[in-house]
Amino acid sequence: GGAERGRGKLEMAHRSGQMLCLSPASSRELEESLNALPPNSTVTLSPGDYKLERAITLHAQGLTLRAQNPAAREQSSRSRILGKEVGGPLITVAGASMSMHGIDFEGSPNVSPSACLRIEGESASRLSSCTFTGHTGKGIEIAGSARPVIEDCEVKNCSIGIHVTQKAAPEVRRCKVANVSASCIRVEEQTAGVYEENSLESAFKACIWAGGESTGVFRKNTLKDADGCGIMLGEVTKVHILECTIGGQFINGIQIGDQADPVVKYNTINESQGSGIVLYNQAAGLFAHNSISGSKLACVGVRDHAEPIFNHNVISNGQGCGVLLLGESAGIYEGNNIHRNSCAGIHTKGKTTGLFDGNTLTANGCGVWVQDESAGAFQNNLISANFNAGFAAIHTSNPKVHSNKIMDGKHVGVLLQNFATGEYLHNVISHNHATDILLEGQCNGYFAENTIIDSVGGGVLFRGDSKCTLVRNRIDGHRKANVAVLDMASPVLEDNVIQNGGGRGLVIIDHARGVYHGNTVKAHASAGVFIGGDAEPELSGNTISDSGTHGLVVDDQAKGNINENYIHHNKNAAVSLQGSARPVVERNVVRHNQHGGIVNSAQGASLRDNDVRAHETANNSPAREGDSDDDDESCTERAKELTSRIGAALAVGGCSLLRKKSFVLVKNPSQSPSHSIGYFRCS
Q1: pLDDT tens digits, residue range 30-71?
Q2: What is the pLDDT of residues 562-611, one digit of tens each?
Q3: Could you tell me which residues come within 8 angstroms of residue 14 by beta carbon, excluding any fewer than 6 positions away?
Q4: Is 489 helix (H, G, I), strand (E, B) or coil?
Q5: Do 162 and 185 contact (CB within 8 A), yes or no?
Q6: Contact at 8 Å (CB) between 202 and 178?
Q7: How far is CA 479 from the centre of its chain?
Q8: What are phi and psi of 635, to 5 degrees?
Q9: Are 434 and 414 in contact (CB under 8 A)?
Q10: What is the pTM (predicted TM-score) of this model?
Q11: Predicted pLDDT of residue 651
Q12: Phi (first) and psi of residue 416, to 5 degrees
């Protein structure tokens, strides 16, 4: 029969040491005959099923084992090695370097083999165009220091498609691995190797799993449809994931845990059901030039002490956040393009401390959203055209925000709420629709040397109990109030330039307080400073000039101390005191206002020691007029200054005359400005 003919051919081949054709034979016959061949023999397997009753081990060095019809599609024309009741690997290549081409290997569906084929020792075998069906076992197992080359093979219906352990370093190219109950490729321990241009799909846990101290390179693989993740990396692996495409149905595209430290570059990760990339525990790694888009949750999620580096990635179209940091995670995020993510471009929460440098964040919900003790540094980023806040800090967050451009937002440029603090320096905040900066709740941020310009709404709006400090900022060109302080806010504004507003310069109303010192407030269409409601601010050392109406207006029941300010060249009065206002106005210098110096129609205002010179004299010595409580000696000295203009007779009686003409004048009610500041309230 066929077995007798097969044995005859084996004997003839053994004597000649050349080539032979083998027909289906038993396990013992196949193992003994092949191991007895001289080095570099070639065996062609005729079509049919080679059924093994037990596992066999091959030692023949240089043996080539090939199917007679490697390209055949019909099962009856293929050469198949089948495991009937084999519990171990069907075939083990132990140390020898062999070649196998076009052969089908299939384990039993009843008794699970550990693998269809095991390659171990220092074998450098080559496999090409073979098919491995492991059922509940593995397809290919590679161990020891083996260095096999596996090309154009198909591995299917296995627990693990290709399992690489110990110090093995295979080359796996252009293979298809599908329908596995665990992983398509699993590498661990101290393995290495190259895995490229493979198609890996339909895995229960992960298409690629790498752990241990593995250092393999996965390049240009296509991963699709995993019930778990596209790639799972754990332990201390340092594998490279390069130019791979991850799509279809999976939870997370790449999940990195433990202390893994991979290099992940030039990959495309699309439409994960969870996140595109997730790092947790103490994972690290370099992630560069990847495209991560369409995730149902965060495109990139970092948590639990993970500290990755993300450079020059495109992170987009996530239904959650672009980049999300949780727990005590950190990391460096540089030069990334983060756009069109529904919730936020970057969201940090908890005790996170990442560095975000030179990123572009556009058309997200929020550009950046930090909360709950989150810190971190944000510098040199372009944050533009986002739909909510460009930068939002809430709930005790404490970021450092330096040298960013925050602009063209649909709502607010910078938002602080609910005990948020932080340091905001050298930023350009401009052209945001509602207001450039909104500070509310009990926030207490520090803003210095920022350029805050050209919002169609307002410049800086204080609400609630906010107590922020603004120092040396330029606040310029807003269509409505450049600065508005409402509710019970109590900020500190020092040495700011507040100018060129389409409405008022500085508005302080409701129960607001605060200290306003050394600011320059100039060139506003309406009043330079308006104080109303029950406000009670401290204004000192400010310069208020070139206003379209009054320089400073105090109205309603407002109080406060207004002292040592320089108020000049305003279109109407320098100071207009109205309603039931009760401020203390003292030691101010008033110059060259067109319609009076200090106009007082309020009942309870206190005016002392103000230096008011409202008009130029012919010899450029300005006329000086004081308050009604000046003593006779002071009035006489001031009267002497009038000699050249009104004559000696008037000067002799100057003391009584000045008292009659003291700058306590009745206001023109028609010039009283409106209380409206024109802001959109942000809830």
Answers
A1: 777 888 888 899 999 889 888 888 888 998 899 999 999 888
A2: 999 999 999 999 999 999 999 999 999 998 877 789 999 998 899 999 99
A3: 33, 36, 37, 38
A4: coil
A5: yes
A6: yes
A7: 31
A8: -65, -40
A9: no
A10: 0.85
A11: 29
A12: -120, 135
d(CA 164, CA 115): 12
Amino acid at 69: N
Distance (Å, whole) CA 266 – CA 269: 10
Phi-psi category of 283—alpha, beta or left, where left has phi over 0 and alpha has psi -120 to 50? beta
Residue 343 corresponds to which amino acid?
C
Write the burial class of residue 140 (CB in 10 Å: 0-12 exposed, 13-18 middle, 19+ buried).
buried
- Residue 550: which residues within 8 A CB-CB, separation 6 or more? 527, 528, 570, 571, 572, 573, 574, 575, 576, 599, 671, 673
Q: Tell me if 598 sits within 8 A of 610, measured CB to CB.
A: yes
Secondary structure (3-state) at 41: coil
Q: How far apart are CA 208 and CA 138, in angstroms?
A: 14
For residue 12, the number of C-alpha atoms closer than 13 Å in the C-beta half-sphere is 11
499 Cβ neighbours under 8 A, 6+ residues apart: 474, 475, 476, 477, 482, 505, 520, 521, 522, 523, 524
User: CB under 8 Å, gap of 24 or more: what pairs does 3-11 form?
Assistant: 3/29, 7/33
Q: How many CB atoms lie within 10 A of CB 562?
A: 29
The pLDDT of residue 91 is 92
